[in-house]
Amino acid sequence: MSESQESKDSLSESLQQVITLLDKHKLVEDLVRRQSMHNHDLVESLVHKQNLQELQKKLDQLHSADVAYILEALPLEQRLDVWELVKVERDGDILLEVSDAVRQTLIADMNTDELLAAAEQLDTDELADLAPDLPKDVLQELFDSLDTQNRARLQSALSYAEDSVGGIMDFDIITIRENISLEVALRYMRRLGSLPDHTDKLFVVDRHEILLGVLPLKRLVVNDLAASVADVMAADAVVFHPDEPADETAKAFERYDLVTAPVVDENNKLVGRVTVDAVMDFIREEAESDKLSMAGLREEEDFFASIWKSVQNRWAWLALNLMTALVASRVIGMFEGSIEKIVALAALMPIVAGIGGNSGNQTTTMIVRGLALGQVASHNMQSLITKELGVALLNGLIWGGVLGVIAYALYGNFNLGLVMMAAMALNLLLAALMGVVIPLSMNKFGRDPAVGSSVLITAVTDSGGFLIFLGLATIFLM
Prior knowledge:
This protein is mainly alpha-helical. Helix content is 69%, strand content 5%. The protein has 3 domains: 3-168, Alpha Horseshoe (MgtE N-terminal fold); 175-294, CBS-domain (Roll), CATH 3.10.580.10; 307-477, Tetracycline Repressor, domain 2. The chain has helices at residues 3-34, 40-60, 64-72, 76-85, 91-97, 100-108, 112-119, 124-130, 136-145, 148-158, 165-168, 182-192, 217-222, 229-232, 246-256, 276-294, 307-333, 336-341, 344-373, 381-411, 414-444, 453-477; strands at residues 175-176, 201-205, 211-216, 260-264, 270-275. α19 (344-373) runs parallel beside α21 and α20 (381-411) runs antiparallel to α21. The longest helix is centred in the first third of the chain and has 32 residues, at 3-34.
């Protein structure tokens, strides 16, 4: 069994253990409440504490990310019961791990003092992630409690968009000067006692914090300690700016196999760093967001959110689907006479529309991926469209021919088989064209091409497929 599978099984087992303890706690308390005995309140209090202590012990053994997973998997009432048992010093880390929707339910259950205590455990960049969900009065108190440097850092982090480099950078940086020896640099690191996570290089700056280069730790280890930093450092380090898109940074991290990279302002002054774990978190969140968007969901949804909250999250694209379905129904209505004369049309037309929708979604997926990787641009647009149309035409002729033969075998009508093949080829050509045009158009107008593209493609191929198939049937079969 792989390590990932073992981890998953262990996490599922922990969740089940927590649920069992919660159920046991509720059952025992209900039984105690029904009993009539002396010192009833004292007995109930002792039973309550004993059960909760066992549950708290289990939670204390789990990693913060595992506790977050468990909280997300519990209904609201049980979630809040478990949340009350989490030690205060772990609140901040767990709030960062849970989804945005679940975080809101936990914060709503906390008072000002609890929120401030949780925030005190976090670094400045982590506070920036949590700040948008905090009440305004708590956020103001948090600002007032920070020293001048951290207050400025927090304000700077909050000024950047979530999908920018500034939105994912942190301030855990170790800087050294170029004129010191490697031995001095090594002694300095030893005095620090510990290094920030994912430290694979030191940042070399001048007295004004202008970045001069980076000193990879492997160079520090293998070179003569008498050598100066200037002789060993890398002056051509990959650097980023706070306003750059984070997705471009993610591509650069993959391309250059980076673990950390410096972030500089317009004057080349070092302002922070980006780490591979922050980049991975961003990629995961973007992937999840794209999946939700393609399904027509506006935001991440708590599994145990209220019915009304879930309806608000889902109604928009359902309304669009209703509109497109009405359009498709009116297209069918235009050919009611043809369908009445040849009943086989009603059985065959969903096939043309369905395969066209699948083909269009395949094309859309390829285009969206190409846009995300920067491989689709104006210089290759014509060849891209030509290629997709060629693929669609060949698929249309092959599978349209297969369906034509099946139609002939079922209904004994040779012309119906030809209409079926022609309709399939034409609808796949339409699907390919729309599969390219829709995401490119959305991207051109600054919209996320992944958002709702599949819904629009399906709408076009459904209406177009019905129109093409029933139109050809009316012309050649009536």
